[in-house]
Amino acid sequence: MAIKSQSGDARRSWPDYAAVWRWHFYAGLFCLPFFCWLAITGSVYLFRPDIETWLDSPYEALHIDGPRSAPSSEVRSAVAAVPGSTFSRYEPPATVTGAAQVVVARDGRLFRVYIHPGTLQAMNVEQDDHRLMELVSHLHGQLLLGTGGSMLVELAGSWGVVMILTGLYLWWPRGSSGLGGLLYPRLGLRGRLFWRELHAVTGLWVSMVTLFLLLSGMPWSVNWGNYLTWVRNHWAVTAGAPDWPIGGQDQLTPDIVASAAPSSSMPGMSADEMIAMSPAATHEGQPEERLAADLQALDKLIPVATGLRVPPPIWISPPAEGLRDWTISSHIQNRPLRVTYTVAPDSGVVTGTDDFAAKNIVDKVVNVVIAAHEGQLFGRLNQAILLLNAACLMLVTISAVVMWWRRRPGNMLGAPPPAAQPHRSTPFAVAIAALALLLPLFGLSLLLMLAIDRTLLRRLPAVRCWLGLAPREVREPKVR
Predict the structure, then answer these.
(1) DSSP assignment, residue 125?
(2) Quick one: signal sequence residues (predicted)?
(3) Per-residue pLDDT for 292 more than 50?
(4) Could you give all domains of the chain from N- to C-terminal order, each with its CATH number?
């Protein structure tokens, strides 16, 4: 029997079900806690425009006696409300009775000031990156850990791709009849089989959307975002700074931004954000009349922005160092609708336009997938799909934990046991190499784990056994 079994094992080709199951188990063990976190924070972020509108509602229906104050006067009041600050950008109110939001820079940080249009009183001052939805964004993409957090999320996303691909292989029907247990769970089942079908079927339905979310979130991450930028800059048509932020980077100080040319590549900051912060440095140490002259141009540009019908929220930013024209840009969450105009301050003539149609193909694709990732590409339906996907992802996690808890031995992690003679396959090695090339952090982490296994864990047999890395024990016949 032993000889027959060994020959049967030799004839089997990879992928081996047990081997794929082990990859799926270890990938899920690492990824699922992150996935739960991303599902919760991402679900909140889906409704960013709605939440920010609600948060700003106390400043949108104000009592105003007489005409509104000039935008230049509102900016002066905002600068005075944050001593030592300089003007960065002006965001027009959403309603005729709403407060203008003026963003000023001080010590490398941006502060948002809500100015009453009648009294010019600063009703609220808050650090811009401490606003609720900015914190949710940092929690989602960086775990509030900056670059290190962004790399952790990217690593979880990379192994998440492995988890989904191996999960689809485990789901693939093998001689079963009917759709029960494949496309829908058979609710009449009990015990572990019920949880297995619930996990497999739900995982099937969320796999494609989740895989899209993982890959579409990569351009924001520190490592993969710079990796994509490096690749895209090898073609002249796509060279230059990307217009999406690469995560994990702190906001740059105005001095740093002002010292860079407008076309420079600033990781972690979009081109519009660079322009918005740069004027702070250009006005420091200069006479007050220079600032006053610039702000007179702002008064002329408000009706220009209204006539251009720029999708809100709108940023009106003074020129960067060495430039003359102001910028009027849309920062709507649906990125394909964004547009940036450069406008001459004296005449109000549009001197340049940068919109979705003018972008290269790589930036077009990235902007579309980012808008879909954030739930803004096709409205409420986009939000509903991603919200349902997040709920189902939580169900997949719960069912996985229940299955693991029921089958695990009392003194071990409970990983599927490896074969005594694991199969090796060239197609498998090529698939792993391709994934490592596509997802560099996956490849590096895999090499690190192999090194730890071959050096440290081999000296710790008890730990290897607990982790499920040791093969099944083969009982030798007793010699009488």
Answers:
(1) E
(2) none
(3) yes
(4) 2-46+147-216+381-467 (no CATH), 62-131 (3.10.450.40)
Measuring CA to CA, how many Å separate 15 from each of 169, 174, 277, 422, 443?
9, 14, 53, 11, 19
d(CA 125, CA 118): 17
Residue with tokens 């509104």, as numbered in its chain: 68
Structure tokens at 348: 């109000």
The token duo for 75 is: 């900016």
Query: How many angstroms from the chain centroid is the CA of residue 120?
Result: 37
Give the start-end residues of each E strand in 119-196: 122-127
Q: Per-residue pLDDT averaged across 263-272, rounded?
A: 40
- State the CB neighbour count (10 A cutoff) for residue 100: 23
pLDDT digits (tens, 9 = 90+) for 215-244: 998 888 888 888 888 877 777 566 667 777
What's the angle, vertex CA 145, arms to CA 139 and CA 150, rounded to 5?
A: 75
Higher pLDDT, residue 239 or 438: 438
Residues present in the chain in total: 480
Q: What's the mean pLDDT when you consider all of the chain?
A: 82
Residue 304 and residue 327 in contact, taking contact as beta carbons nearer than 8 Å: no
Question: What are φ and ψ of residue 439, in 5° steps?
Answer: -125, 85
Name which residue leads in pLDDT, 467 or 189.
467
Which residues touch 469 (CB under 8 Å, ≥6 apart)?
415, 418, 453, 457
Compute the distance between CA of residue 86 and CA of residue 83 in angstroms, rounded to an integer: 9
Sheet holding 122-127: strands in order across? 122-127, 109-115, 100-106, 86-91, 314-317, 326-330, 339-343, 350-355
CB 33 within 8 A of CB 423: no
Residue 363, both tokens: 């930036």
C-beta separation of 246 from 267 below 8 A? yes
Position 476 scores a pLDDT of 42
Is residue 272's pLDDT more than 90?
A: no
